Every structure is written in C-alpha cells, then in structure tokens.
Amino acid sequence: MRPRKLILHHKKRRRLLPYAPSEETTHRLKQMRSLASSLTSLNMEYSDDLTYSIDMAPRSANLSMHEKGGMQVLSKEDTETLAYRRAMLKRGECPPLLVIFDSCKG
C-alpha cells in the first residue's frame, strides 16, 4: 500500500508594482485619457475601494469564502506599495492607469 500524499494547490501569486510617475508628459496624458474615456463611456465613477452597485451583486457576494483557493495574503512589500498609493491619493496625486481590453475577462 502506497502512503498518501498531500496535494496542495496554490493561487497564482501576483505582485503589486509601485507607482513611478512618468516624466514624459505625452505618455502620462495618454494614460489619463485612457482611464477617463473608459470610465466616461461606461458611465462609471472612479473609486479606490472595491464597490459593487446594487444591480451588480448583493452585499453577501463580497465574502472571502467565495474566493477559490482561499484569500491571498498581501506580502510586506505589497502592503507598503498599497499604503504608498493610498497616501498619494490623499495628497491629490492620482496614479495614471492604462486601460486595456482583456480577451478573457472583457
């Protein structure tokens, strides 16, 4: 009889990248234009927090037990990056985002 082996599945680890402001004005404007046009075309409003509108999902949908593979714990570096980004937003500095279409997620 073979001994049983424990099989573990880990979620794919993602790393938050710190924001480095671009010195190139044209590149920065392109990023801001991308975000603004995406939000405007969908009649959306930017939010720094995860929010669901009432017609999208009930409040009960935002539970950690629904996460496949369990919740991912942020590393120390990712926590620092997130804190840095939130501090920037409090100072009124919005990090530009480039919105791209993902063929899998839409």
Topology:
Blueprint: H1 25-41, H2 76-90
Count of helices?
Answer: 2
Are there runs of 5+ residues with pLDDT below 50, and where?
none
Q: Roughly how many Å apart are the termini?
A: 49 Å
Inertia-based shape: extended
Structural class: mainly alpha
Gyration radius from CA atoms, angstroms? 19 Å
What are the secondary-structure elements, in order, as H or E?
HH
Strand content: under 5%
Task: Give a count of the beta strands, DSSP E runs of length 2 or more.
Answer: 0
How does the major sheet shape up? none
Can you give the helix content as a percent range? 25-40%
Mean pLDDT: 68
What does this structure look like?
By secondary structure, the chain is mainly α. It has a domain at 19-41 and 74-96. Helices cover 30% and strands 0% of the residues. It is built from two helices and no strands. It has helices spanning 25-41, 76-90. The termini are far apart. The relative contact order is 0.21. The model has no long low-confidence stretch (mean pLDDT 68).
